[in-house]
Structures are given as C-alpha cells and as structure tokens.
Write a structure and sequence with these properties.
Blueprint lengths: L1 H5 L10 H6 L4 E7 L8 H9 L2 E12 L3 H14 L16 H10 L3 E11 L4 E5 L5 E7 L3
Parallel strand pairs: 1-2
Antiparallel strand pairs: 2-5, 3-4, 3-5
Length: about 140
Amino acid sequence: RHADGQGLTIDYRSALVEDLVAEGRTFDCVLCLEVVEHVPDVAAFIATCAKLVRPGGLMVLSTINRTLKSYALAIVGAEYILRWLPVGTHQWDRFVTPDELTRHAEAAGLAMSAREGLVYNPLTDAWSLSQDLDVNYMASASRPA
C-alpha cells in the first residue's frame, strides 16, 4: 500500500536469501538488521548475503556484541526486567563481536568500511550513534567494484 500511495514500483517479498541467490539477484544495498544474532551459522549467512551485493554495492548489518554488558542489557534488562522482548529472544552465545563480523565479511569478499555503536538513553527515550560497540552496533561492508 505504501508504494502504491507514493507512486513507487517496489517489489516487496518475503524470501530466503538462498532463494534470491538462486535467482541470480544482486542489489546495490543489502540490509541485515537485527538478524545476525539469531542465525545458527553466522559465517554461512553472511557469505550467502554477500553474494547478493553487486560490485560496488554495500551490505549494512546491525547486531549485538558478545560482552558481559550486552548480556546484562540486552538479555537481563530488555527481556527479563523491562519485558521489551519475550524471554528467550536472544542467546548470548549467538551474539557476534565486531571482529568476528569483520572476519566473516572479509571471508565473503567484502571490505569492512565502518562500525558504529548504537546506545539507548532511557532518560530521553532515544537512540544515538556512539563509538561504544559494547552492546548494539552497526557495520557496513562493501564489495569492490
């Protein structure tokens, strides 16, 4: 409905990345937001997603770092205390460090270009960018042209 109302031609689809790869699809930008920490094989997932990034294109990822701070805030705080998420949504051992994410991206033929933290301020109820990668963070990686 949004696309029609704006006069846009957008192909909204719910599909597995493997299906898009099998179709030979590539994109200028591939977004993997708040997914990486839920997949059982991060290296395979990133490698498959990387196949969708055209030469000169970009992959943007967001995930949660594997630190004691992330356990305290993302699991204990968000799931058990604040109940923002159902208990059991996250498994700490599936959180991915920035260095691990970089290694997986580089192994898939991408060049990591930026990493930025996301920090929530409960007093202002706002998120902001930060150099703090201890909990939530984003990263971008490009495929050489």
